[in-house]
From TrEMBL:
<feature type="transmembrane region" description="Helical">
    <location>
        <begin position="111"/>
        <end position="132"/>
    </location>
</feature>
<feature type="transmembrane region" description="Helical">
    <location>
        <begin position="144"/>
        <end position="163"/>
    </location>
</feature>
<feature type="transmembrane region" description="Helical">
    <location>
        <begin position="230"/>
        <end position="256"/>
    </location>
</feature>
<keyword id="KW-0812">Transmembrane</keyword>
<feature type="transmembrane region" description="Helical">
    <location>
        <begin position="358"/>
        <end position="379"/>
    </location>
</feature>
<feature type="transmembrane region" description="Helical">
    <location>
        <begin position="86"/>
        <end position="105"/>
    </location>
</feature>
<feature type="transmembrane region" description="Helical">
    <location>
        <begin position="268"/>
        <end position="286"/>
    </location>
</feature>
<feature type="transmembrane region" description="Helical">
    <location>
        <begin position="169"/>
        <end position="189"/>
    </location>
</feature>
<dbReference type="InterPro" id="IPR020846">
    <property type="entry name" value="MFS_dom"/>
</dbReference>
<dbReference type="InterPro" id="IPR011701">
    <property type="entry name" value="MFS"/>
</dbReference>
<keyword id="KW-0472">Membrane</keyword>
<dbReference type="InterPro" id="IPR005829">
    <property type="entry name" value="Sugar_transporter_CS"/>
</dbReference>
<protein>
    <submittedName>
        <fullName>Metabolite transport protein YjhB</fullName>
    </submittedName>
</protein>
<feature type="transmembrane region" description="Helical">
    <location>
        <begin position="385"/>
        <end position="405"/>
    </location>
</feature>
<feature type="transmembrane region" description="Helical">
    <location>
        <begin position="20"/>
        <end position="42"/>
    </location>
</feature>
<feature type="transmembrane region" description="Helical">
    <location>
        <begin position="54"/>
        <end position="77"/>
    </location>
</feature>
<keyword id="KW-1133">Transmembrane helix</keyword>
Amino acid sequence: MTAVSPPASATTPSGHALRALVASVLGYAMDGFDLLMLGFMLPAISADLHLSGAQAGALVTWTLIGAVVGGIVFGLLSDRYGRVRVLTWTILLFAVFTGMCALARGYGDLLVYRTIAGIGLGGEFGIGMALVAEAWPAQLRARASSYVGLGWQLGVLAAALLTPLLLPLIGWRGMFAIGLLPAVVSFVVRRRVEEPELFVAHAQRVAVAAKAERPRALRMLVADARTARASLGVAVLCSVQNFGYYGLMIWLPAYLSKSFGYSLTKSGLWTAATVAGMALGIWLFGIAADRFGRRPAFLFYQAGAVVMVFVYAQLSTPFALLIGGAAMGVFVNGMIGGYGALISELYPTAARATAQNVLFNIGRAVGGFGPLAVGALAARYSFTVALGMLAAIYVLDIVATLFLIPERRGAALE
């Protein structure tokens, strides 16, 4: 397959590239807003619907399970039917069933709505990353991918600041009703964003080929030993990323409340500081990955995560927690800015969205156990011990990067 890449002088994104970026950022921002909003609303939902602790936790778990299913299904569909069309489907499905949660009468129907909304949520990350990687110049690919990652942080930051303010006024049902707004975004995406030329050219080649010759996207993730090693490495990186992120963010408000007596509003502000650090880390990661390479950027951030999560577990004063949380956020989630470019450069157009969604959502599936592990360790020992466990898992990240991940900075996309 002939590689297609912008000329070396093409360092300015086109109007199409900018629209693709906006659509992808908005989609991922809605995901982040929804998941952290749910974390803040669980006590109110539990009180109103008389949920047990296990049932409340299952709402998060099954949202993530739905995301894994949606990531695989919509990744495959996107590689066959187009990035923009399938991205629209995912946003619409997510919006409708998030809105349906406002009508829930009990645990059973709310669990169904959350799971289906999760299916829509799962498709947005990988499709958006593939769309942006194919639309932007190679020299800016990591930077553009990091902007998509920033979308999640913008959504999480909005949830951390707005949910404590709006929840007492409109209740948890009103908060879920806000989830219908992404339906408008899906309409705009469908009307204003075009398919990348790289994908259009690929679709034309497939159309004239015999059906038997149609590439199998999932098989292409393990097409040979080198690709299989890279897929394993990316799966490990995504697993550690999601395990650490969900383990930290789901329990951070409870940790601050139980250990230091913070109110919901104050926990939200301290969480927002951590999220702001994450956003800064993502932005800096994109710049570093384009300048120094994917592997050096990942290794630096992974080492930083080991140190900062361990340090954060030792802090006890309000100011130290505020600054330490922001510094920890830089390293713990800054790496999300690199996955889009890394995965896009490892796989061809026929399997790019599939690779993005399948590998990242394998990580999301593993990450779903993060809150469970942190909660269990915190209950049996302490939050300090639980945070120490999170620090240790980033060592596995370093090993995977050193031995499984190749460097393909700025490679021409096939």
